[in-house]
Amino acid sequence: MTTSTRAAKASFTLRSLGSHCAALALLLPVLLPVQGNAAEAGSSVKSEHSALPTPKAAPPAVAKDWAPPDGKIGYVLWHEVSWGLRETADHKEECPNGFNIGPREQFAEEFPNDGKKRTLLETQLKREAEIWMPDTSPDKFPFYEATGKYAIGVDLDGKTTPEDFESDDGRKGIDNQLFRVVGCVRNYRQEGELGIITTKWRAQKAFNRVTFEITGVDSLTNDPDVTVSYYRTLDTLLAGPTGNFVPGGSQRVDARWGKRFIISAKGKIVDGVLTTEPFKEVQVPEDGMGDPAINIFKSAQLRLKLKPDSAEGVLAGYIDVEQWYYAMNTAWATHHAAYGQASAASIYKALRRLADGYPDPKTGENTAISGAMDIKLVQAYVLHPETEKVAKTP
Fold first, then answer.
1. CA distance 282 to 268
2. Structural domain boundaries of the chain?
3. Alpha carbon distance, N-terminus to C-terminus of the chain
4. What is the number of other CB atoms lying within 10 angstroms of the CB of residue 255?
5. Using CA atoms, how far apart are residues 238 and 101, in angstroms rounded to an integer?
6. Nearest to 75 by CA among 384, 380, 305
7. Which terminus, N or C, of the chain has the lesser number of Cβ atoms within 10 Å?
8. Percentage above 70 pLDDT, the chain
9. Phi and psi of 126, rounded to 5°?
10. What is the pTM of this model?
11. Range list of H helices, the chain
């Protein structure tokens, strides 16, 4: 090494001693191979530093005093997390007796391999008929209802009864009888395939696209008076390179074939959480295997944690039992339901037994069951159709 090179290196080192230790650590990799004069070393450091990526500004974690443009923001549904299931790691709290058995296990119990000859009509067709023509007679098999103190949902009736739950954040009177029905059925839990498949259907099938739009918003943190509208919309979801759905897409309102879905309710935002007054009825389209169905939430309420780019929470209400059961069976053949040990006939009996809303005026039997859909949404711009211009009669 020449004298001039040593001097240059020493000069460079002395100038660097006053730098912040973090900056010094950044420079070390380029100091080691230095050759030539100090100017070359400085040039090398500069180019190495400029190659570091500049971090992008992340969206705010909370909507701190932020108001959306024109006072409106939309959120499109992309993920049905569960039917309002609060699950614990060892399931002992909600399912102390274990999980319910499914179609295959029930078939084996009802028709044991005991050498007795049985016809197809007496076995498989009999059980399929029980699915499509269910009744409320006592179940031949034990059915374990979910229990415990806590559940996901909202207080739908403004009362606190022994059947009600409590939320994890301390809200009393949570109405969620559907949790009792499906909470110990594997297909509806995290290990079941329902969540994976329904999210895929929700994203891929245009029939299932629904969007909420909040208008009159002065702040996404606190606003005592907003309007929440619900639409069936027409556009695909905007996916990113990792497969997650990203904000900023657009959704056109289906004002023709989706007119039946359009409904609004008043709401408020407190500490970033949107709650609504009851919608008369929210209809959620469910197309799984190409046989579309509609889940009907009566006296529906929203409770969503809002962010500028996303929202998550629950859509709760009194869910029409027959429609929910029909949607389940059109989406899940016995073969697929058996993967998650979901026996349709047993579930129907539990639905009718635990139904707690909208009694039939003739029979007095409840036709709806309290429940909640645990949902995730991503921000989208809602595009309304232009008003059709019609020539006036002179």
1. 18
2. 69-383
3. 99
4. 14
5. 39
6. 380
7. C
8. 81
9. -60, -45
10. 0.81
11. 3-16, 21-31, 38-50, 103-110, 124-132, 177-182, 194-204, 321-331, 334-339, 344-354
Q: Do residues 84 and 374 make contact, with C-beta atoms less than 8 angstroms apart?
A: yes
Q: Are 311 and 63 in contact (CB under 8 A)?
A: no
User: Amino acid identity of 277?
Assistant: E
Per-residue pLDDT tens over the stretch 351-367? 999 999 999 999 999 99
Q: Counting beta carbons within 10 angstroms of the beta carbon of residue 314, is it exposed (0 to 12), middle (13 to 18) or buried (19 or more)?
A: buried
Strand, coil or helix: what is 164? coil
Nearest-CA neighbor of 235 among 264, 273, 206? 206
Q: Taking the CB of residue 210, how many other CB atoms lie within 10 A of it?
A: 24
DSSP-assigned letters across all residues of 272-290:
TEEEEPPEEEEEEEE-SSS
Strand partners for 198: none
Q: At what angle do helices 21-31 and 38-50 cross, to 10 degrees?
A: 110
DSSP 29-94: HHHTT--S-HHHHHHHHHHHHHTSPPPPPPPPSS-TT---GGGEEEEEEEEEEESS----TT-TTT
pLDDT, tens digit, 9 for 90 and up, residues 292-344: 899 999 999 999 999 999 999 999 999 999 999 999 998 878 888 888 999 99
Please give the helix or strand (H or E) that residue 120 lies within, else none.
none
